[in-house]
Amino acid sequence: MEVFIYLFFAAGIFLIVSYFLGKSIPDLRSSQFEKEIKEKKRTKGFVVPVNILPLIAPLNRPLIKLLGGDENLKQKLMAGNLKVSIDSFLFIKEVLAIGLPLGLYIFIGMEVVKPLWLLAAGVLGFFLPDVYLQNLTRKRKAEIIKYLPDTIDLLSLCVGGGLDFITGIKWVIERAKPSALVDEFLLVFRELEMGRSRQEAFRSMGKRLDIPEVNTFVRTVIQADRMGVSVGEILTVLSEEVRRQRFQRGERMALKAPIKMLFPLIVFILPVIGIIVGAPVMMQFMQQSTVRASMMGK
Questions:
Q1: CA atoms within 13 A on the CB side of 172
Q2: Residue 47 forms part of a structural domain
Q3: 3-class DSSP state for residue 9?
Q4: Model's pTM, two decimal places?
Q5: Which of 60, 121, 180, 269 is positioned for an S-S bond with 100, CB 3.0–4.6 A?
Q6: Closest CA to 83 of 183, 204, 214, 198
Q7: Which tens digits make up the pLDDT trace of 38-79?
Q8: What is the extent of the structural domain holding 163?
């Protein structure tokens, strides 16, 4: 057991030393990656120092492949709008996987904490950032679904007023209420400014979010671009279609509500009702039994 504790301490010291050494050692990554990192530093959000782990980054390569590869992790981080690099995200997972067991050992003591608890704390710390990212992504997708119909209406009005589609997107970015969907349109607009085609930029947006309503919007824009159809009329029809999909989604959630309420109803509510209703009857029955027993004793 002492060897297990020493290994945790050694790993924690190694990560801390690597962090401070990594800040002083020049990073050999590409200039394009550096530009992306500087851009992320200028944006708002939860930002972790990214010029870290140059010493242990090669050790994270097998872990990255195990977790799905660079592209998969990058898509997840972008879908949740979590402004950290892949190396920094893995660094957070490693620190929590080591820090939680160490915290239990230091603050509670080895006499109380069992080795199995330390192992469970390490596993929990490693997967805790994934749970946070998944919850963040779910909330962001719900916000995008909420604002998508109104945003499509704004685009339709812009195009109907004489603006082209890209200028309409720029107008929505500048004038619309800040939301996750506006942030996604901003990413699309930046990709268009960098030289990517409209089809590639919107296809990347659909792949990044993986929302049925957004995929419908992306497919419609790509087909209109290919066929040369007026985007304004298509956006008007698409807005109604997205609203219908959102209404159907709400109906499905409403139908699932009784099933979800069944477990707390059986486990928490029915026992309380049984106690409230049955307790007076049981008390009266026990009192009568006591009186009868005393009378028979006499």
A1: 31
A2: yes
A3: helix
A4: 0.65
A5: 121
A6: 183
A7: 444 444 444 444 444 445 555 666 766 666 666 777 888 888
A8: 142-248
